């Protein structure tokens, strides 16, 4: 690809609008000289998911900005595309996709959407966007291959053969970094580094070949893992940008 000065990546946001804005402003992204990848999980859990959703929709498709899908976008998507009943109403059960989403931070997002007064429009627009979001991407800079995905992958398989559940949900590499012995640099979100015993900043493991970017965006000082932060890293220089707590 064209020469870039910074290859930036932002970990999970989870509806923490103020934290997201604080780190994004620090980064001072320049579309002419930088490329930035977002690893998904823009909504749920945090207290202000709607501004984050609106920001992502506004910036999707802009130059040198890549937005990936996370498992929380997938849960949202599945929840609102469930088959309706014969009466035209959504089927709801304890094991439904809607129940799964609401029980994993989606309730906060749903209430935020409802309070806007434009629920149907916002849901439809977000569904349309999520359908376009890729599960992974490969970027080559300075002859180095980088793989980006939300959760996990099999380093021995081409991206085209990866399992969707792996890409969105599993934590195998985060928990067992030694499984990655390839040449590509793999960049993941999804698993808060604090839950793995690290401090709240991006982690370069396996001699820099595995980068973990989820620093517990929605955690607070009352959590045994917190306080959390939203993090951005320049993969070329190793510089880290973080939100204010």
Automatic annotation (TrEMBL):
Residues 6-208 form the Calcineurin-like phosphoesterase domain. Coiled coil: none annotated. GO terms for cellular component: cytoplasm. GO terms for molecular function: bis(5'-nucleosyl)-tetraphosphatase (symmetrical) activity; phosphatase activity. GO terms for biological process: RNA decapping. It comes from the Bacteria. SUPFAM superfamilies: Metallo-dependent phosphatases (SSF56300). InterPro entries: Ap4A_hydrolase, Calcineurin-like_PHP, Metallo-depent_PP-like. This is Serine/threonine protein phosphatase 1. It comes from Selenomonas ruminantium. The lineage of its organism: Bacteria, Bacillati, Bacillota, Negativicutes, Selenomonadales.
